[in-house]
Amino acid sequence: MVEIRYTELSEVLRQQEKEGFSPVFLIHGESFLCDNAVEKLAAALGSREAFEALEGAQVRLRDALEEISTFSLFGSGKVVGLLGARIFDSGSEAQALAEKAEKAAQKGKTKQAIPFFLRYLALKGMTLESLVSTGGKKKKISEKDAWMQPLAETCLQKGLKVPDSMDEGELLLKAIEKGFSAGHHLLITVDQVDRRRVLYKKLAASACVVDCSVPSGNRRQDREARDEMMRECLVGVLGRAGKTIDPRAASRLLELTGFDLRMLVANLEKLADFAGDRKGITLKDVEEVLVRTRQDPIFVFTGAVADRNASEALFSLAGLIKDGMHPLQALSALVNQFRKLVTAMDFLISPAGKGWTRRMAYDGFTRFVLPALLDHEAALKAMRQEWDDSGEVAAKATDLGIAGNGKNPYPIYQTLLRAERFERRELEQAMAILAEADLRIKSGMDATKVLESAILRIGLGSGVA
Questions:
Q1: pTM for this model (two decimals)
Q2: Helix (H) or strand (E) holding 277
Q3: Domains located in the chain, CATH noted
């Protein structure tokens, strides 16, 4: 139907509102812009209640198509978003299926291995017969693929067949050709596309493709395009917050953030909170709030989990692991974070925390709450000292406080803001989830998958034990 740039999306939506919306939108490129595009599309296509987001890392396209074919409870239509879909990477999916099948087969779990094995053969266009010996002639199979032969023989004995070799791209094209119910729309986001592939060309002819990519080269026009996008983002966020920023502060902010729109928005929101009633953001504000985050990406990760921002947390975790951090180290950082949140919650629900109000401004926190928190923790320390005259218990327990000496108040303020996102029992559930994850990882389960599951369960919140 049409290929457009992200900057053209608002205008195209206004046109389609008059002429009729595309049934399918394919969105690719920079992740923050993709997320913004999804938000704009969801708002334009229906009510918030009619939008259902599915994570592509955990849900297959078939499931999304089944979901969009069901009746909407809200009458006005239905919008399904498949975020992070894998329709362009069937090769990597085949490899993952082969690894799962081989691992299960080596453990003697043939029944578990067979579904992965058959799907792998389907994606690779292979048959069972091509892997087994026939007519007394022994098939020559490489040593690394030797595990496939007994599985293929078992499948043939059971009368099993390789499923239709249609990959997810072909499945999507057939669904578009068939059409969706009136008012039903499918939004698909992918990291990148290959414009040379037939799949992309066919999708571009039948869907609305939104290009959110950003130039990554070092040419002058590439750098200018990135700078312009950062400036637009900065002006937009500050405008909504009713803030201004000193030019030197803006330069330092962009230097610390780099080209990362998601991080830029998060940093601007932190600075706006920090400024409180002050209209202007200064260079001193930037130095005090943001320098530590730039140096320690682990804080970005733990902060995203505490903010119940699962997508940002999973993205940050992937970066940490790619840089060499073991998932157990990341888990340990999360445990420390949630211990602090439990301590913060205990303060908030105590008589000493009565001065705190929901989404309290930073200035009010430093004037009214911080002194009360310091007195509260000093009283607790004194109480522990009385329990153990030697001071041993008290010395160990000081790590359980969140205020320290109170000379770096902004992180304390952030901890209280994050604590109020939870109920006390939800924090207890989160600690139980993290303890369970620790046990599973140490028992030999896939550490990354276990930690990702824990992050999603914490993000879902109430009712997830």
A1: 0.54
A2: none
A3: 2-87+168-212 (3.40.50.300), 92-157 (no CATH), 220-295 (1.10.8.60), 327-460 (no CATH)
